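step=encode ok
step=design start
structure_in=
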């Protein structure tokens, strides 16, 4: 994880928070969900978390998409919708919506369409792939 300061929570009564943040940072939806459910009372006693449950879940999906892309070699970043659905736990018929959100976030943060087209992601025909991949 990029910020090791969260490690101070390990071995404390607040380790559940460490586990949730770590799961989110590596895009592990299953660990995030399991930890949230195991520590449901503590999770929902935190106003910032309890008031934004759906937002945190959406961010978890997006972080999972990011991790899926960067876990693959730069020359092979094609990911089919079935794999995205399986890993993010979202229904396959919603994957294209999520990949569109992911692409729009990339455009927003890159701010230059040329940057996006040079190194971003393209979703079509049930596959999300790095721009420029799969072309003959």
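sequence_out=
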């Amino acid at each position: 994880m990029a910020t090791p300061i969260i490690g101070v929570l390990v071995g404390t009564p607040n380790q559940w928070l460490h586990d949730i943040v770590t799961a989110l940072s590596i895009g592990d939806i299953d660990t995030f969900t399991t930890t949230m459910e195991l520590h449901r009372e503590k999770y929902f006693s935190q106003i910032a978390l309890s008031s934004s449950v759906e937002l945190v879940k959406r961010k978890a999906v997006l972080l999972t998409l990011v991790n899926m892309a960067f876990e693959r070699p730069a020359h092979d970043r094609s990911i089919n919708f079935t794999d995205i659905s399986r890993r993010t736990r979202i229904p396959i018929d919603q994957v294209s919506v999520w990949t569109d959100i992911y692409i729009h976030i990339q455009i927003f943060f890159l701010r230059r369409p040329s940057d996006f087209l040079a190194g971003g992601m393209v979703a079509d025909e049930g596959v999300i792939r790095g721009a420029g991949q799969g072309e003959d």
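step=design ok
step=annotate ok -> The two ends are 38 Å apart (CA to CA).
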